[in-house]
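Milestone M4 deliverable, item 7.
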Amino acid sequence: MSRSITPERRGAMSVDAFAEWAGVGRTTAWNEIRLGRLRAIKVGARTLIAFDDAQAWLCSLPEAQRANHCKKSNGTAISLIAQQSLESGRPMDWRDPR
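Output delivered:
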């Protein structure tokens, strides 16, 4: 994928795009869906993952795997990328959280 994925441009992504975004393989992504740990939706023949569901999956991983990309805020797990976006007022860039 050559363009960065932002929620403003897309509300959901393909399983392949999710795997790239999350830094996991396609097989892992499909296994997470099959095991019910990653919510996927069907639109016609396509399988999509909503950004909110992708973020929830990432924040549900054990600490060592999620590499501190999530933190608790008022009892809710949120992405540090989202937190930085809220603090800076700039849109989120899921591929480059700097």
